[in-house]
Amino acid sequence: MIFQSNLPIDCVLAVTYKCNSRCTMCDIWKLKENSNLELDYYKKLPKTLRDINVSGGEPFLRQDLVQLIKILRKTYPKAKMVISSNGFLTDLIKEKMREILKIAPNIGIGVSIDGIEEAHDKIRGIPGGFKMAIKTIKMLREDLGMKNLRLAFTISKENASELSKVYDLSRELGVEFTLALAQSSEFFFGGKSVEEAPDEKILKKQFDYLIKTELKSWQPKKWARAYFAKSLFDFAKTGKQALPSRAGQDFFFLDPFGNVYPSVIHNSVMGNVKEKDFSAIWFGKEAEEARKKVKESNQDAWMICTARSAIKRHPIKVGWWVVRNKIF
Question: Which residues partner with 14 through β-bridges?
Answer without folding.
Answer: 55
